Amino acid sequence: MDLVLHSATLPHTDPDASLAFYRDALGFEVRSDEGDAGGRRITLALPGSPGTSLVLEPPGAAPGVTAAERRMIAEMTAKGTYATVTLATGDLDAVFARLRDAGAELAWAPVHQPHGERDCAFRDPAGNLVRISQRP
Q1: In terms of Cα–Cα distance, which of 65, 82, 95, 60 is closest to 127?
Q2: I need a labelling partner for 78 at 20 to 30 A (CA). Which of 15, 16, 49, 129 fits?
Q3: How far apart are CA 33 and CA 36, in angstroms?
Q4: Spatial distance between the Cα atoms of 12 and 112, rounded to a whole number of angstroms
Q5: 130 has which bridge partners?
Q6: Pairing of strands 53-57, 7-11
Q7: pLDDT tens per residue, range 40-99
């Protein structure tokens, strides 16, 4: 099979705060920013990775999601139990320092995980867990 990751979607609760985190602190580029304050959908990509996107949209924006499900998604997102994205870098300590200095909410500082990976994690403005792994 010839598959590549095209996009991943995370909920956002404040599009401007999310842009400050992903664009300004992490260096993502904005590919599109559509909709109004109540329903903005923002598509981001890392420089050099034009074929893979991170899409930010309001919790439960998919068609067919009930009001009760939207509330549950919003509650789980705020607690950090709904969604996770994992990024990789060649310099974990530099990325950690950049996010820390930008005031991002720390989940854990760089640590060697039991499975052998070294990573750290932050929460984005909506509460999503953003793990950052050290590339070998």
Answers
A1: 82
A2: 49
A3: 9
A4: 29
A5: 85, 122
A6: parallel
A7: 999 999 999 888 999 999 887 888 889 899 889 989 988 889 999 999 999 999 999 999
Query: How far does the chain reach from its first CA to its final CA, in angstroms?
Result: 26
Number of H helices, E strands in the chain: 3, 8
Q: Which of the 8 DSSP states describes residue 2?
A: -
Tokens at 122, concatenated = 């932050």
Strands 53-57 and 41-45: antiparallel
Report how far residue 130's alpha carbon sits from residue 123's, in angstroms, rounded to the nearest whole number.
6
DSSP string, 3-58: ----EEEEE-S-HHHHHIIIIIIT-PEEEEEES-TTT-EEEEE-TT-TT-EEEEE-
69 forms bridges with which residues in the sheet?
A: none
- Strand, coil or helix: 113: coil
Q: What is the pLDDT of residue 38?
A: 66
Rounded to whole angstroms, how far apart are CA atoms 38 and 67?
Answer: 15
